[in-house]
Amino acid sequence: MSVLLRSGLGPLCAVARAAIPFIWRGKYFSSGNEPAENPVTPMLRHLMYKIKSTGPITVAEYMKEVLTNPAKGYYVYRDMLGEKGDFITSPEISQIFGELLGIWFISEWMATGKSTAFQLVELGPGRGTLVGDILRVFTQLGSVLKNCDISVHLVEVSQKLSEIQALTLTEEKVPLERNAGSPVYMKGVTKSGIPISWYRDLHDVPKGYSFYLAHEFFDVLPVHKFQKTPQGWREVFVDIDPQVSDKLRFVLAPSATPAEAFIQHDETRDHVEVCPDAGVIIEELSQRIALTGGAALVADYGHDGTKTDTFRGFCDHKLHDVLIAPGTADLTADVDFSYLRRMAQGKVASLGPIKQHTFLKNMGIDVRLKVLLDKSNEPSVRQQLLQGYDMLMNPKKMGERFNFFALLPHQRLQGGSYQRNARQSKPFASVVAGFSELAWQ
Ligand code: SAH
């Protein structure tokens, strides 16, 4: 890999990345209490009607409705990423991010015996920028991946973003096949000739040897919130504020609720957030990886079971009160990696979470940056590369707030042979790129 990095991965990508700095979502913000206008959005009207009909709703239901309601959800009909959107993500900042992740997948593919085929599956692909950068690496390393059958599978609920992904990734001369009623709602061919399909749910992605990727995906899944009280744990609900018209407020449930079962018996915090949907997805990924091999790479902001109230909103690159103008702002909560680890336990091995700056450093970001800088005479491009590097790596920016976490078959770490159909039966190496310091030559 060091040779590949030194010789570069082809020409400098001409894709203009976001001018920096813009806010990234990993910033901590306690919800509520921000003075702000409260326009009556269609989503607010819908939620008030719902609460009036059936009573207060859990924070998880609130988050799910606001973000992914098929008719009015925040994610469904808009492009919220980038300079003109509400927040910026690592792949939108620097091409190097996706390139290094592409190298990670190839490195795992090689370490597990170079299977004759694999699926690249991304959960929540945003604008498709990350998968585009990964596929560029696959093309540049065509001689390594030669004769390997690759297919791309995107799990995306947003109609708008899936259209942008198709524009970014597919060959326009090959018409897209669309079938809104089918679990595979869109199909096409990427610019490099790889079959690509879209799904709303991971369950519908074909099972088989796969590499899974989730970048800033788990943080948008709905969380339940709980507060410790003298009477025990009480779930936080969203209700209509009786004092102010058209305003929502948080209330505590008067008695225990079923979701309380998710709280650990020895929990010491006084406020916790739990994300059952994340658990379901990790269990599904773990079962698939245990059965057919492959790996999952999860990158997100989060903690290891230590933080309390992290639920927050983002709008126009600013923090936003989560209960104001629902449907116009992104809602997010830090990922609890200790919970993800528990959900994977017994099925697959997990690595991390480790900090983004450590992971990218281990993957050779400094070497890749130098290659790109050496190749570029354009001062503005050089400045963009350096600023992008700083944003991704600086511990005060994204470097420490974002984490990498991986799921791998147990055999991968034990050095046993796993992949039966592999072209090589070489035992797995125990070093997993990114999670251990590699000797870059
Ligand atoms: N990974 C991208 C985008 C992150 S934003 C990046 O880093 O730039 C979150 C993404 O997850 C969006 O594409 C959003 O539409 C998608 N998403 C949100 N909830 C989802 C769900 N329940 N199932 C599938 N995709 C979802």
TrEMBL record:
Subcellular location per the Swiss-Prot or TrEMBL entry: Mitochondrion
Gene3D superfamilies: 3.40.50.12710
Major place of residence: mitochondrion
Biological process annotations from GO: methylation; mitochondrial respiratory chain complex I assembly
First-level EC class: transferase
A GO cellular-component term linked to this record: mitochondrion
Signal peptide: none
Keywords: Methyltransferase, Mitochondrion, Transferase, Transit peptide
One Gene Ontology MF term: enzyme binding
Domain of life of the organism encoding this protein: Eukaryota
Pfam families in alphabetical order: Methyltransf_28
Keyword Transit peptide assigned: yes
UniProt-listed Enzyme Commission number(s): 2.1.1.320
Catalytic activity: L-arginyl-[protein] + 2 S-adenosyl-L-methionine = N(omega),N(omega)'-dimethyl-L-arginyl-[protein] + 2 S-adenosyl-L-homocysteine + 2 H(+)
Family per similarity comment: Belongs to the NDUFAF7 family.
Annotated function: Arginine methyltransferase involved in the assembly or stability of mitochondrial NADH:ubiquinone oxidoreductase complex (complex I). Acts by mediating symmetric dimethylation of 'Arg-118' of NDUFS2 after it assembles into the complex I, stabilizing the early intermediate complex.
UniProt xrefs under PANTHER family: PROTEIN ARGININE METHYLTRANSFERASE NDUFAF7, MITOCHONDRIAL
Subunit organization: Interacts with NDUFS2.
Protein name (database record): Protein arginine methyltransferase NDUFAF7
Gene that this sequence comes from: NDUFAF7
